[in-house]
C-alpha cells in the first residue's frame, strides 16, 4: 500500500455560535491510496430472442442454466454468483408514417460472478463465453473489506486538512482553537474493464488486476484564536 497523492486547500470565514460570530478557518485535505485488490467481479449474461415473451423467456432460461453450470465450475469454491438484472422487453419495427409493428421479444438475464482468485478472471470469461454467454461486461477489481483502507485514507486527509489550517493560522498571526465541524467523503474506485462477446471468443483471455484507488477528503472548520 502506498500514498500516491495528497492535496489540501483552505479559507478563512466566520460562523455564528453562542450568540456571537467566531472566526474560523476552513481547510480541506485529500488523500489517494493505491492498493492491491483481493476480488474480481464480472457481469455475465445471456440475451435471447423469441416470437413471444414466453418463448424468449424459455429459451433464455435454457441457455442461462447451461452457462451457469460452466460458470460455477470455473469459479470453484472461491467464487459465487448473484442475479443483478433480468428483463423481458418487446421488439418493434418502426416505419415512418406507420404505427410500430411488434416483431418479437428479448429476454435478458445477467449475473455477477465474484471470486477471490484474481488469476482465474480470464478463465472465467472464457468458460462463460464458450458456454453461451453473449453479454460480458463491467469487469472490475475490488477490495472485499474496504473499511481499513478507507479509514487510513480519511486519517491522512484529516491530518493534511489540519496541517493546512495551521499554516493559514500561522500566516494570519493566530492559532487554532476547537474544531467546529468536520465533513468526510471517501470513494473506492475499482478499475473497470468492459469486454464484448467478439473479444471473448479469443482464448485464453489475459487479465491484469493492477491497483484499486481509494480517495478520501476531509473538510474541517477550526476556530481561530489570537
Task: Write out the strand line-up for the largest beta sheet, numbering strands in chain order.
Answer: 4-5-3-6-8
How many strand elements?
9
Alpha-carbon distance between the two ends: 40 Å
Outline the biggest β-sheet: 5 strands, antiparallel
Q: Given the structure, what is the number of helices?
A: 4
CATH homologous superfamily annotation of the largest domain: Protein of unknown function (DUF541), domain 2
Please name the CATH topology of the largest domain. Answer: Alpha-Beta Plaits
Write down the Rg: 26 Å
CATH architecture of the largest domain: 2-Layer Sandwich
Helical/strand content category: alpha+beta
> Could you name the ranges where pLDDT drops below 50 across 5 or more consecutive residues?
1-10, 14-20, 191-203
What's the SSE blueprint?
Blueprint: E1 2-17, E2 20-35, E3 39-50, H1 53-75, E4 79-93, E5 101-115, H2 121-130, E6 135-142, H3 147-171, E7 175-189, E8 192-193, H4 197-200, E9 212-225
Antiparallel strand pairs: 1-2, 2-9, 3-5, 3-6, 4-5, 6-8, 7-9
Helix pairs in contact: 1-2
Descriptive notes:
β4 and β5 form a beta hairpin. The chain contains 4 helices and 9 strands; from the N terminus they run βββαββαβαββαβ. The chain is α+β, with helices and mostly antiparallel strands and 226 residues long. It has helices at 53-75, 121-130, 147-171, 197-200; strands spanning 2-17, 20-35, 39-50, 79-93, 101-115, 135-142, 175-189, 192-193, 212-225. The model is unreliable at 1-10, 14-20 and 191-203 (pLDDT under 50). The two termini are 40 Å apart. It folds into 2 domains: 8-36 and 153-226, Translation Initiation Factor IF3 (2-Layer Sandwich), CATH 3.30.110; 39-142, Protein of unknown function (DUF541), domain 2 (Alpha-Beta Plaits, 2-Layer Sandwich), CATH 3.30.70. The chain is elongated, with a radius of gyration of 26 Å. α1 (53-75) runs antiparallel to α2 (121-130). The strands form 2 sheets. Strands 4-5-3-6-8 form a 5-stranded antiparallel sheet. The protein has a 4-stranded antiparallel sheet with strand order 1-2-9-7.
Amino acid at each position: 500500500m502506498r500514498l500516491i497523492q495528497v492535496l489540501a486547500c483552505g479559507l478563512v470565514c466566520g460562523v455564528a455560535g453562542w450568540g456571537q460570530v467566531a472566526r474560523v478557518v476552513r481547510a480541506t485535505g485529500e488523500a489517494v491510496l493505491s492498493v492491491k485488490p483481493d476480488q474480481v467481479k464480472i457481469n455475465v449474461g445471456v440475451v435471447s430472442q423469441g416470437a413471444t415473451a414466453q418463448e424468449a423467456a424459455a429459451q433464455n432460461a435454457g441457455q442461462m442454466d447451461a452457462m451457469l453450470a460452466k460458470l460455477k465450475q470455473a469459479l470453484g469454491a472461491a467464487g459465487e454468483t448473484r442475479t443483478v438484472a433480468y428483463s423481458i422487453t418487446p421488439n418493434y419495427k418502426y416505419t415512418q408514417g406507420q404505427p410500430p409493428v411488434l416483431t418479437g421479444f428479448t429476454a435478458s438475464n445477467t449475473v455477477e460472478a465474484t471470486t477471490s482468485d484474481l488469476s482465474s478472471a480470464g478463465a472465467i470469461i472464457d468458460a462463460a463465453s464458450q458456454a453461451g454467454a453473449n453479454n460480458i461486461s463491467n469487469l472490475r477489481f475490488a477490495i472485499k473489506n474496504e473499511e481499513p483502507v478507507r479509514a487510513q485514507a480519511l486519517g491522512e486527509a484529516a491530518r493534511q486538512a489540519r496541517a493546512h489550517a495551521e499554516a493559514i493560522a500561522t500566516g494570519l498571526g493566530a492559532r487554532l482553537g476547537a474544531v467546529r465541524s468536520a465533513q468526510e467523503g471517501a470513494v473506492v474506485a475499482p478499475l473497470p474493464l468492459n469486454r464484448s462477446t467478439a473479444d471473448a471468443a479469443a482464448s485464453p483471455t489475459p487479465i491484469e488486476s493492477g491497483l484499486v484507488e481509494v480517495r478520501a477528503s476531509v473538510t474541517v472548520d477550526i476556530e481561530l484564536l489570537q
